[in-house]
Amino acid sequence: MTSPTFDPRLILLAPEDNCVIAATTLEAGTALAIDGETVVLATTIPLAHKLARRPLAAGEKVVRYGAPIGHVTASVARGEHLHMHNLVSDYLPTYTHDEGHSFVSHDKR
Q1: Beta strands 81-82 and 50-52: pairing type?
Q2: CA 106/CA 108 separation, integer angstroms
Q3: Are 98 and 104 in contact (CB under 8 A)?
Q4: 78-100 pLDDT, tens per residue?
């Protein structure tokens, strides 16, 4: 059995993960191999951020280290950046930094 082909600038933490990790900052327009398919990045991906390993449907769980870490809020294409703009934790409240330099909880509990 052949293992999936990945660009060396990407890290796959567990075989069942549906995301990969940027091992360096990846500039918009960069071509990468993800599971043997070439993807051209639409946006810059910062170091250590997640990219979708395959297309994900809205509401689908994101799996990292073999465990679900949250779900996507909109459909995501292969190679798309996974972060606070389209990924929500299912376990922790989400916090954003407001202009007053304090943290505001968006937890509705």
Answers
A1: antiparallel
A2: 6
A3: yes
A4: 999 999 999 999 876 655 544 44
Cβ neighbours of 52 (radius 10 Å): 24
Is the pLDDT assigned to residue 109 strictly greater than 70? no
Query: How many structural domains does the chain have?
Result: 1
Find the domain containing 44 and state its range: 10-105
CA distance 41 to 76: 13
Name, in order, each residue with C-beta under 8 angstroms of 61's C-beta and a sequence gap of 6 or more: 18, 68, 70, 71, 90
Tens of pLDDT along 25-47? 999 999 999 999 999 999 999 99
Beta strands 10-11 and 19-22: pairing type? Answer: antiparallel
The pTM score is 0.80
**What type of residue sits at position 51?**
L
